[in-house]
Amino acid sequence: MEEKPAQRTNVLKTLFLVLGFWALALLALGWVRAWPDTIDDAHISFRYVENFVAGNGLSFNPGQIVEGYSNPLVVFFLIPFAAIGFPVEVVMLLVGVVSFFFCAAAAMKLAQRYGCPEWVQLLAAIAVLGHFPLLYYSVTGLETGLYAALIVGGLWRYESKGASVDWAGALLWSAVVICRPEGVLYPAALGVYELIRALQKRGSWKSVGWLLGVGGVFVLFELWRRWYFGMWVPNTFIAKSPGTADLTPGVSWFSSASNYLLDFLYQLGILLPLCGAATCFDKRLRSRLGALWVVVAVGVLFAVYAGGDWMPASRYLLSIAVPLIVAGALGVGVLWTYLRQRDLANAAMALVVLVGVLTLAAPSYVLYRFYSQSERYPYHVMNSRTVRDSAIAMREIYGTNHRIVAHRIGALGRYSGMEVIDLFGLVDHEIAEIISKHPEYHPNPKRGDNIPELRELLRERKPDLMLILQIIPDPVPEVERYGYRYEVRNVFQLGEDQWWVLYVRAD
Is the dihedral of CA 311, 139, 95, 295 positive or negative? Predict the structure, then answer.
């Protein structure tokens, strides 16, 4: 009987050794899969940066000053590097790598701040290291990894200062505000939470004051946005009506958001995030995790507002993946203690084994999907290579002095050098306002020709070229759009299951 605790300790050590190697294997294989990719949307930000350095202001199409990016902090950060000729893709790759490993370290340290055993801290760090979706979106050009790192960094600093926001925490939350448009929701919600704590004499008024300072940063940024772009919100918020970010015609807001949330829980192994609920039954943790749960709630509400996302692996929810992983690890610790106190040590061990295995098995399957379907939609859009190669070919054939109508615009605009008429309206305010009145709208297959206002606008702009996206390689030789006749000229294959058909205006 004396040997059983020691035996359980050895089993726990062996388990975490296996989980550690498994997480490192996922990290290595995930890196091999991720590093060659640059997500097509990232090229939108890169073109803004390069146009600014070229003297064209913050524009996707020179002469059109529209806020068509969703990551101001990244755009501002990249401008000096682009000005000295340093590749912006490399900069974002390095930022993503640092952000990802910071998230893993912060998960461990945050769990430590909550006074948890070392194995709980280790479980949190392993779960982050093995989380392929966070790795992928950190190193493929988007702001996702940086955004997640800033949020968990703000939480870490908050807990380090005894559940209070100080000057350093205010700087981190200010960076969150500028990193993404919805970023302001995190310090705003935390500010309300801190105000309630201060009124109850459980919190600090200084913390409320520093968060008011973050609000001041947001106000100044909004005034600049209004002065520079003439709008109080990014154009992307106009173009993407609530619940339409999934971009799948005919799918309801509720269905899209529900599936998105369930998919996110699945990618964390389901059991780990569910175990987070156990922290509510621990008096010590219940009183300390308020800020963490506020952050998680904000992330979930934004994902529901957006209605999910067209990119796989729950990109919008990765901002709260680390806090939720930490909460789950803490919940496993609570359940471990509860079961052991009732002489159910074997059940406690079985729980930890099951949570650990599921937490790494789920991202393993996601990684398998990314490998096995890499040339099928939407994965070939994620890597943007075929779009980039097609855009380069168009530039070589037609030059840059053309106006092309399309809806997959990132690498197309950056590498073709043409003026792009964006059928999703992300970088075009006039189109964004029109389609915001038509939440059912999708550019395929009519290219906006079925909406009278949009048809008239496009007729006035007289696109020289038009790209039609098809799932069959055989194009219709001639089509009519916007009152013009277009003839097919080129076909570009995008992965295994999509083709771009390029039409040239014939009249």
Answer: positive
